[in-house]
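SEQUENCE-TO-STRUCTURE ENTRY
===========================
Question of interest: how does this chain fold, as expressed in backbone structure tokens?
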Amino acid sequence: MNRKNSLKSTYFPHISDIFFFACGIIMACSEIWKQLTLTFVIGGGSYNWWYFPFQLCSIPMYVLLSYPWIRGRNARPAALSFLMCYCLLSGIAVFADTTGLHYPLTVLTLHSYLWHILLIILGIAAGFTYIRTLRSNEKKALFSRALAAAFPLRPFIYSTFLYLACCLTAEFFNLWLDKFGTINMFYINPDYQMQQVIFRDLLPYLGNTGVILFYIASTIFGALIFFLIWKLVYRLILFFGSGSSKFI
């Protein structure tokens, strides 16, 4: 029993840790089902590399599965920052053009919608978990410090490094697996023209490579906007949670 309690306190000290890991398991199981259905029900036993699970909306699953073991001083905030910025962005942005959510089977379409709705829920949950962690670490003694120090940019920078590393990995998959079939991870395969709404309209002006780079930069900028929104939420929580207190 003591060992069980020790493992729980080490890997799952908060309800949020259990929630994130459980969501990761659910997502992984549903992804395995999706891959099997696409391969054997729709593909007749032939795997379609287009559905290889390494899009931006897939990365949160891997982050959540490893979440209990991400306990470093900088690693955990970076993981939460990735979820509350990049995960939330990928969950919301897809509803600007839902054509990619539709499949030949209704059950797969439903899975796709539920997946991205869950991404939004996870992003919001990660944001409030991140704020709770900051308040706990600072022991509510934040009003004598600059807000920039209280809500540091460093975790977002690290989460952006993670995003860029995923972009490089996705490009490796695109170039390496392209010979086996159509694949376009992160929608940045240079062998295919940009398909994302709005960005594809820039092709005549920037060219495909230019649009891909602009797309990556825009994703980072969009995630930064979410980070700044969370910073504002943090500020409002401090204000309303501290009565008439003011802060810098």
Observations:
- Residues 2-240 form one domain.
- Residues 140-144, 243-248 have pLDDT under 50 and may be disordered.
- The chain has one domain: 2-240.
